[in-house]
């Protein structure tokens, strides 16, 4: 196939994809998005109490007592 025909075919396919409007199941989309939001909240709540443990671990890694004030 020559370059002109190849480009014309590509343009035709691109135009079909651009203007193609499939039927959207909005209720299924809403359920999917709601499920993802609930799953993200569960993950955040699961690890929220672990934040304070990082400070103790860093102090131990540098050989500092955990109550020592930090300097920049």
From TrEMBL:
Stretches the record annotates as Disordered: 40-72
Acidic residues compositional bias, start-end: 48-60
Pfam families: DUF3073
InterPro entries referenced in this protein's UniProt entry, alphabetically: DUF3073
Name of the protein: DUF3073 domain-containing protein
Organism, as annotated: Microcella alkalica
Organism classification: Bacteria, Bacillati, Actinomycetota, Actinomycetes, Micrococcales
């Amino acid at each position: 196939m020559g370059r002109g025909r190849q480009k014309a075919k590509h343009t035709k396919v691109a135009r079909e994809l651009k203007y193609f409007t499939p039927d959207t199941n909005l209720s299924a989309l809403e359920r999917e998005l709601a499920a993802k939001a609930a799953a993200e909240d569960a993950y955040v709540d699961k690890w929220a109490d672990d934040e304070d443990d990082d400070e103790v671990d860093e102090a131990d890694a540098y050989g500092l007592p955990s109550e020592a004030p930090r300097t920049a």
